[in-house]
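Work Package 4 report. The design task specified in the project plan requires that, given a folded chain encoded as structure tokens, an amino acid be chosen for each position. We show below one input record used in the internal validation round.
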């Protein structure tokens, strides 16, 4: 899931470990990319066969990420009680 920065000077991608990485790119004398640097960890799913990206880089450099909660942080289920007022005693 590679993404270019809006100014074309950096290439962002997700490592197999789920880290968002950045590599500075220089094109003045051909194409040269610096060693990738980790920016932050994110729970981005790298699904085989999925062609849509799970993140984007905003013009101001912030990231918008569709994250998956790890199993330990998943919300527990809720119970929805309908017509609960019918179980109240009459007043």
């Amino acid at each position: 899931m590679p993404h270019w920065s809006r100014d074309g000077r950096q290439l962002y991608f997700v490592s197999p470990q789920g880290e968002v990485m950045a590599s500075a790119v220089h094109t003045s004398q051909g194409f040269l990319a610096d060693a990738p640097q980790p920016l932050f960890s994110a729970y981005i799913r790298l699904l085989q066969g999925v062609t849509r990206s799970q993140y984007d880089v905003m013009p101001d450099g912030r990231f918008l990420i569709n994250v998956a909660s790890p199993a330990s942080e998943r919300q527990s289920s809720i119970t929805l009680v309908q017509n609960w007022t019918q179980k109240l005693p009459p007043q």
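The CA atoms of residues 27 and 58 lie 22 Å apart. Validation will be extended to a larger panel in the next phase.
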